[in-house]
Amino acid sequence: MSVLLYLIPIALFLGLIGLAAFIWSIKSGQYDDLEGAALRILMDDDEPVKQAEKNTPEKNLENKLS
Predict the structure, then answer these.
(1) Which domain holds residue 37?
(2) Are 25 and 31 in contact (CB under 8 A)?
């Protein structure tokens, strides 16, 4: 029973750390662009080097979406 005196505060402390990390991630914009990561995997990286220098990933994404 005395073990609970140690485990409960440790569990609460770890829970607060997790909550603080989640709130920080929301405030820092980690979840702002949910669709960008899903579409980035579809972009073809096999372009020649000269062509890749001209097109940035943002332009490629805009071209594929339009």
Answers:
(1) 33-66
(2) yes
